[in-house]
Amino acid sequence: MMHISYLADHEHLIPDLARLHFGEWSYLRPGETLEGRTERLRGCCGKDLPTVVVGTVDDELCGSAMLVAHDLEDRRELTPWLAGVYVKPEFRGRGLAALLIERIAQQARALHFPRLYLYTPGNERMYEHLGWFALEHRIHQGTGIVVMSRPLG
User: Fold this and answer.
1) Higher pLDDT, 73 or 87
2) 3-class secondary structure for 74-142?
3) Which of 9, 23, 93, 132 places its Cα 20 to 30 Å from the Cα of 61?
């Protein structure tokens, strides 16, 4: 059974999570280093906004999701954002991403936000299945992405 908790309560997982995030998405942040990603995660270790939640099984890191104020610099009017949704390959296909996403939605709801935003370079269908809808298709750092939203009411 996966347990979801704040990364702030498991800071020993930051280096591993930074490596996973960096390996998955460094192409979307040209110039970012692994050290920079690690420090960015440390800076998101709050328990409101920003925050990172992690899924663990027997204290093994399974996945993550983040709540951040902004995730696209040219869309700063949209806030807050779901980001960093990652599930290790060996834990995929079990609904863990949906649990992590819902935990972030609960956090945003508790902070009285009416909606949540995200962008994805390839998981539009999964997010649609979870109640998200596309706002725009665009190119970001040379990659096609979809900006999506979900009401929290």
Assistant:
1) 87
2) HHCCCCCEEEEEEECHHHCCCCHHHHHHHHHHHHHHHCCCCEEEEEECCCHHHHHHCCCEEEEEEEECC
3) 132
